[in-house]
Amino acid sequence: MSQPSAALRLVPSPTLDALPPPPAGRTGWPWTEQSQRLPEAAPDGRPWPRLSIVTPSYNQAGFLEATIRSVLLQGYPALEYVIVDGASTDESRSIIERYAGWLSYWVSEPDRGQSHAINKGLARCGGEVFNWLNSDDQLMPGALAEVATLRVATQAAMLVGRGVIVDAQSGRIRHDWAGRPPRHPLDFTRSNRVVVAQPSAFLDARLVRQVGGLREDLQCVLDWELYLRLTVLLRERLTTATTPALLSYALYHPHSKTSSHQADFQSEGLRVLRALGPQLPALERLRLAAYVRGVVTQRMVADVWTANHRWQYLGSLLVQRPDALWSRPYWGALRRLLVRAAQ
Fold first, then answer.
1. Which residues contact 330 (CB under 8 A, 6 or more apart)?
2. Is the peptide bond before 30 cis (omega within 30 degrees of 0)?
3. Please, are residues 147 and 189 in contact by the beta-carbon 8 Å criterion?
4. Is the separation of the CB atoms in 18 and 137 below 8 Å?
5. Among 198, 203, 227, 338, whose Cα sits 20 to 30 Å from the Cα of 236?
6. Residue 302 and residue 166 in one domain
C-alpha cells in the first residue's frame, strides 16, 4: 500500500456550540458534553502525533451522528478524520454533509465492503497512528489524548486500551475488555491470551501500509486477521503498549455483525488460520494444526444437537475424526445424551 500523495487538513477541533445542535432529547456524551481541548504541543514542547481515524459507513444513520461527534469533540489538535460511505440509501449522506466542514475528507460512493472502505480511507491519510471507528461505535471522552500520550511515552507500534460492548436497547455492558495485545502468533490460539477491542486499538500507520492494509476478502475477522498478520510478519518489531483507560464502546444491536454473523466469524477465522501454516516454523505449524483440528472437532460435536439421530451422529463422528475421542466436547456431549436417556 502506497503512501498518501498529500497530507489531509487537520480537524479544527470544534466546540459544542460550533457543531449542529443534537437531536431533541439527546444529552450527555457526545451530545451535550465535550472533551477538554489539548494544548497545541505536547508537554515536552514537541507537536502531538498526527492521528488518523477512518469511519466506514453504510446505512447506519441511526448511529452515525453519535460516532462522528465522538471523534470531532475529542479536542485533539492533530487529527485527520475521514468518512468513507458506501453510497448509503438511508439518511447517512445528509448526516455526513451536516458535519462536512469539520472533516478532513469524505466520500459517498459504492465500494466493495467494509475492508475496502477502510483501505480507501487509509490511502488518503497521512497520520503516524491509525485506527478505524465503525459507524455504530464511539470514542470515549479524552480517548485520543490518552492514545497520543501513550504514543509519545512509548513510541509503540500498537497502542491498546480498554473497550466495552454495550447492548443498544438495554444499555447493559455485554463485554468489558482490558487490552492484552499479542506477543506471538500462537497467542491467537490460546484462550484470553489476546484481548483487543478493535475501536480501542491504534496502530502505526506505516506498518499497516507495509503489510498491505486490511484483507478485502474478509467480512468479519478483518481486524483480528490484521493483528495476526502484523504479529507474524513483524514478530519482536511489533512493539505494544497498553492503558487501563476506557477508550471506546461498541454497540450490540440486531444488525451488528457480532449479533447477526456469529457463525461467519468462526468460519473466517479457521480459513485464516489454515492459510497461516506455511508462514510459520515447523514446530509452530504443528501446534497450529493441532489447534485447528480441535476447533473443527468442537464445531462438529456441537452439531449433534441439531442432528435427527444424535447417537448415530456421535458414532459417525468417531469414524470421520477418531481424534474426537480425546476431546472434552465429545465426552461432554456423550454425557449429556446419557443423562437425557436416563431421565
1. 297, 301, 314, 317, 324
2. yes
3. no
4. no
5. 198
6. no
Q: What pLDDT is recorded for position 301? A: 75
- Give the range of the structural domain holding residue 227, as residue numbers without chain letter: 51-255
pTM above 0.85, yes or no: yes
Total tally of structural domains belonging to the chain: 2
Assess if residue 266 is contained within a domain.
no
Tens digits of per-residue pLDDT, 153-204? 999 999 999 999 999 889 899 999 999 999 899 998 887 789 999 999 999 9
Residue 340 has pLDDT above 90, yes or no: no
pLDDT, tens digit, 9 for 90 and up, residues 22-37 = 999 999 999 999 999 9
Q: In the structure grid, which three cell numbers stand for residue 105, read together? A: 475528507
Ramachandran assignment for 25, one of left (phi > 0), alpha (psi -120 to 50 degrees), beta (any other):
left
Q: Return all residues near 226 (Cβ < 8 A) that are at least 6 apart.
A: 203, 208, 211, 214, 215
Q: Are 218 and 287 members of one domain?
A: no
pLDDT of residue 12: 87
42 falls within a domain: no
Tell me the three cell numbers of residue 189: 490460539
**Pair (132, 245) in one structural domain:** yes
